[in-house]
Amino acid sequence: MRILLAEDDALLGDGLRAGLQQHGFQVDWVRDGAAAECELRASPYAAAVLDLGLPRLDGLEVLARVRAAGCTVPVLVLTARDAIPDRIQGLDLGADDYVVKPIDLQELAARLRALARRAPNTHEPVLHWGSLSLDPARRQVTLDGVEQSLSTREFDLLALLLRHGGRVLSREQLEQGLYGWGQEVDSNAIEFHVHHLRRKLGAAWIETVRGVGYRLRPA
Asked: Where is this protein primarily located (predicted)?
């Protein structure tokens, strides 16, 4: 699940991004309101986490602008404990939920999952490729009817390949899909995840197209 995080505090933002990634989210992190508005208008996100005290454009103004533009991405607002008027105004402007600082990461992840489930037209069907099936909602993979134990990155990598229906994806495309932009990625990270997927599912499932990238072999 790809989400947008808009938080200007470097320490908090880095911690939230790392923690949400551990919960299986793909996180794009921006640090000001203008960038948040631009991303919400231009990119498809399952949900957004929006701090209200953003530079350049405050969170309430971001929310008002994107809702006026027809953006329906579920938005969870981060608020201070004593900022009840801000919470009310945020909900009135179109926020779907809020979390009070200091933030409990487990609660934040659970609320994001709930928002994504309730959002219209966000349920993704089970993906099939021969005897391989991947259920995005349950984050479950089965091979020949047997459930497979995959790490978060392995699951997301397999989902990317399945969604592209056998087309070749470059390492850069896979990195962007797995990690989002603006993150430092080890040079062999994709190769590492492909290697482990092959070990678990069988080497024949993922084909290396030399000099180009990877794809699923024809089913």
From this structure: cytoplasm
